[in-house]
User: Fold this.
Amino acid sequence: MSDEFNYGEIYAPIYEEYTTVQGKVAEVDETVAFLERYCNGGSALELGIGDGRVAVPLSQTGVKVEGIDNSCSMLKLLAERSDLIKAWQGDIAHFNSERRYNLVYCVYFTFPLLSTREAQIACLRSAAEALDDEGVLVIELWVPGLNPLVGGQQTTNARLVDHENTIVNVSVHDPLNQNLISTLLWFSGTSVRRLPQRVRYVYHQELDTMAECAGLELAERWGDWSRSAFTKRSERHISVYRRTSP
Assistant:
């Protein structure tokens, strides 16, 4: 993953705690159940594998999971968690694999960390080439809600407030590049953490078009990992792509 803020290195020391308070650990079982049905004990490749939050429990279902991440610190966390998963350091936008997989997946909004359209299309092409003939690509993305924003406008919103944590996100909008340059401020007890990142938001229609450029076509789209319908009120989507028939 090529993000100039070194997302993995910044988040690695707090990643398990952060994903827990954001509710991502709680939904792992649903995520694994969703993904496992596409490989059924076969093989899977995770783009942005991180600390193995999804990959490790998926491997425990009998799937042979491998992964790519650009962060040495994240890969170290993964190695400490499991020695059964082959993972390597690399850029998820540009990778080659001799192996072909039943499933390639990219979750927890990792895809937008590729902050240019070119990098995102390159990622889709690399993923398509890594699929076997019947394989699928699964991507989790949030639905942008950016209509009121203009160029350079700054927004502040609360991402989480509970009795122990307050997470506030401050963003500047770059509409020409569909970028949000953000800083998360995480207040917990007496500590304050500053977590910068840059993302390129993508509407689901644009994702479909970019996927077509990469030789993929939409097979399914859901509103969450439990397969709720994707509607105009959905805040995210889980999109499943197959290689385009020749």
